Here is the input.
Amino acid sequence: VQLQASGGGLVQPGGSLRLSCAASGSISSINVMGWYRQAPGKQRELVATITNGGRTNYADSVKGRFTISRDNAKTTVYLQMNSLKPEDTAVYYCNLKIGLYVYWGQGTRVTVSS
Here is the structure.
């Protein structure tokens, strides 16, 4: 299984970005995809997850600003990030969980700065 993330970049506070992560390989229909992030000097933290059935979970810090979704084939996950704040600056990693197996993408950097 491989995960390819894209969509990071530099954006001003209040701006928006959309991250994408495409999964390839042998993927069970029962899985959870998600996004985590790691800011400089901090531990990696959960941003949002979505099950193959569409159930979502968000960190309190992003609720109401970020939206996670999946495509119909359930192999690509998106993270729409609105009203971005400087504290959202981090490397964002996509994640796929299939049973006890966990896969990570390579990370995409998001910088929120004026």
User: Anything to note?
Assistant: The longest strand covers residues 90-98. Residues 7 and 51 are 21 Å apart (CA to CA). The chain has a mean pLDDT of 94.
